[in-house]
Amino acid sequence: MDHIVTVQDAVTAFADFMEPTDAELDAIEREMPVILADVDLLDAQIITLDRTPTELDARRIRRARRRALAARVALINRAAGTSLPRGAA
Q1: Alpha-carbon distance 80 to 32, whole Å?
Q2: Along the 89 residues of the chain, how does pLDDT read in single tens digits?
Q3: Per-position DSSP letters for the chain, written without gaps between them
Q4: Is the dihedral of CA 10, 12, 18, 22 positive or negative?
Q5: Is residue 68 within 8 Å of 38, Cβ to Cβ?
Q6: Measured between alpha carbons, how far is 85 from 81 in angstroms, rounded to an integer?
Q7: pLDDT at residue 18 in the model
Q8: Neighbour-count burial for 59-71, b at 16+ CB within 10 Å, e otherwise
Q9: Which of 30, 34, 56, 32 is nearest to 44 (CA)?
Q10: Largest pairwise CA distance in the chain
Q11: Whether 53 contacts 61, CB under 8 Å
């Protein structure tokens, strides 16, 4: 007979008392424009799943894709700007 044994780390890894740290919350806040832009892009793509995309659908997807890319570029530029030494930019 095999006994089922739990590993303490695996059990407590998702316990209620484990909250995200301030650094993790700050990282989520910084990435929120990218997350929201990706959600908009997915919404635009989901709309066209069960039908042939119209010209309006295609424009909506292109706009959402451009916003998502712009949000990613802005995030990367902010990250690069904060990691450069003073006066290097």
Answers
A1: 17
A2: 676 666 665 655 666 667 888 999 999 999 999 999 999 999 999 999 999 999 999 999 999 999 999 999 999 999 888 765 665 55
A3: -PPP---HHHHHTT-TT----HHHHHHHHHHHHHHHHHHHHHHHHHHTTTS---HHHHHHHHHHHHHHHHHHHHHHHHHHHHHSPTT--
A4: negative
A5: yes
A6: 9
A7: 78
A8: ebbeebeebbeeb
A9: 56
A10: 68
A11: yes
What tokens were used for 12?
């407590």
At which residue do the structure tokens 């929201």 appear? 36
Instruction: Report yes or no: 40 and 53 within 8 Å, Cβ to Cβ.
Output: no
**Do 67 and 59 contact (CB within 8 A), yes or no?**
no
The rounded radius of gyration (Å) of the Cα atoms in the chain is 21
